[in-house]
Amino acid sequence: MRAAVIVFPGSNCDRDMAVALRAAGADVQMVWHKDAALPDGLDLVAVPGGFSFGDYLRCGAIAAHSPICQGLVAHVNRGGYALGVCNGFQVLTETGVLPGALMRNAHLKFICKSVGLTVATTDSAFTQGYTAGDVIDLPVAHHDGNYTIDAEGLAQLQDADRIAFTYANSLNGSVADIAGVLSTNRRVLGMMPHPERSVDALHGGIAGQALFRGLVAQLVNA
Amino acid sequence: MKVKVHVMLKDGVLDPQGAAIKHALGSLGFDGIDGVRQGKVIELDLADGTSEDTISQMCEKLLANTVTESYRVEVL
Question: Could you tell me the fold of the domain covering B2-75?
Answer without folding.
Answer: Mth169; Chain: A , (3.30.1280)
